[in-house]
Write a structure and sequence with these properties.
It comes from hydrothermal vent metagenome. This is Diguanylate cyclase/phosphodiesterase (GGDEF & EAL domains) with PAS/PAC sensor(S). Keywords: Phosphoprotein. By secondary structure, the protein is α/β, with parallel strands linked by helices. It has three domains: about 160 residues, Rossmann fold; about 110 residues, Beta-Lactamase; about 55 residues, no CATH class. Helix content is about 45%, strand content about 20%. It contains 14 helices and 14 strands. A five-stranded parallel beta sheet has the order 2-1-3-6-7, sandwiched between helices. Helix 3 packs parallel to helix 4 and helix 5 packs antiparallel against helix 6. The longest helix is centred in the middle third of the chain and has 45 residues. It is elongated and about 115 Å long. About 5% of the residues have low confidence.
């Protein structure tokens, strides 16, 4: 039973080659093919822009321009289908160039139709046609099928990669993906921007050798030890200091978590870091209120670390998140306002 027809655009300046491919594919009973033909570079661009093809076959020789130039142009324009490059015998350098330009596959045209071309022109033999078909048709059909399947798989991976990036790069945390040896596979955009690095500067380096860690020898050693512990299966977490892109010291909550495969072996490490500088600074202010506070017994001013006497409410406000309000305690109220009704029957009097 045939499924939906596979739409193919063949770009070749030789109509005989188009007819050959049409004849070959017509022999396949399980799949229906809907073929179109463009005879030159410009008409190919028009058909590609207006059409919606499942796969393209580009001949290398197209007059003044060639199929690789066409391939590069349509790929740059966002082509969303695989291209198979048709080349001549012994053109290995062209095959390599085509794959580098984005071709899904390449086919040597002599392998597809050499028997048919000779027998059809010299004898017109139907038997000769069948000999050719048995050799060229499976090769062409397989190339088309594999190209479409690989392209669909590639698009699925690319979509998955985009979803991963959307999550990976938008998080507020500094996140990295490492191999079990501590080599950076990825750092998210948050981390790269914060440290003023490009992706190429980070990927491939050992995490403890990155500039913002290596600048502190103790931190580098501690990070290397953390990677080794995580690679052995442990979850590691500690506070660390790092320099941001402006050279300012920041405090981070740093962790490395192992990722295991189905057999339990550690194959990846996830590093995460949160900037806790504001929290540390706030905590430091709160801690500065601990210990002995020298307070004047008469005016209640507090002596600060610079030997300056400050109003107690100002002192507290500068060193904590507390908001100071002024009131009066019961003892002072009794002393200052003894005639108030609320204190006349006070049992303490």
């Amino acid at each position: 039973m045939k499924t939906t027809a596979i739409k193919i655009l063949i770009v070749d300046d030789d109509e005989d080659e188009y007819i050959l491919i049409e004849d070959l594919l017509s022999e396949i009973e399980s799949v229906e093919y809907d073929l179109s033909w463009a005879s030159d570079y410009d008409s190919a661009l028009d058909k590609i822009e207006s059409g919606n093809y499942d796969v393209y076959l580009f001949d290398y020789l197209l007059g003044e321009k060639n199929g690789i130039e066409l391939l590069r142009e349509v790929v740059d324009n966002g082509l969303k289908a695989p291209v198979i490059m048709l080349t001549g015998a012994g053109r290995h350098e062209v095959d390599i160039e085509a794959m580098d330009a984005g071709a899904a596959d390449f086919l040597d045209k002599s392998q597809i139709g050499q028997f048919h071309s000779v027998l059809r022109k010299e004898t017109g033999s139907a038997d000769g046609y069948q000999v050719k078909g048995k050799i060229g048709m499976p090769l062409l059909e397989r190339s088309i099928r594999y190209a479409i399947e690989r392209f669909k798989a590639y698009e699925a991976v690319k979509e998955s990669e985009l979803k991963f990036r959307a999550i990976f790069d938008q998080t507020f945390q500094f996140t990295g993906l490492l191999d079990a040896g501590g080599i950076v596979i990825e750092l998210n955009k948050t981390a790269l921007d914060f440290y003023g690095m490009g992706r190429n500067d980070a990927v491939g380096a050992r995490i403890w050798e990155l500039p913002f860690i290596l600048s502190d020898a103790d931190q580098a050693v501690k990070t290397k030890q953390a990677v080794q512990s995580a690679a052995s299966g442990q979850f590691v977490r500690f506070e660390a200091q790092r320099k941001n892109r402006e050279g300012r010291i920041i405090y981070i909550d740093f962790s490395i978590k192992p990722v295991r495969d189905e057999n339990g072996a550690v194959v990846l490490l996830i590093s995460e870091a949160r900037d806790i500088t504001e929290f540390k600074e706030a905590l430091s202010k709160i801690k500065s209120l601990q210990g002995i506070l020298p307070i004047c017994s008469f005016c209640n001013k507090v002596r600060d670390e610079n030997d300056n006497w400050r109003p107690v409410d100002t002192y507290i406000h500068e060193r904590s998140e507390a908001q100071v309000s002024h009131s009066i305690c019961p003892d002072c109220a009794r002393e200052q306002y003894p005639d108030l009704d609320v204190y006349k029957n006070d049992p303490e009097e």
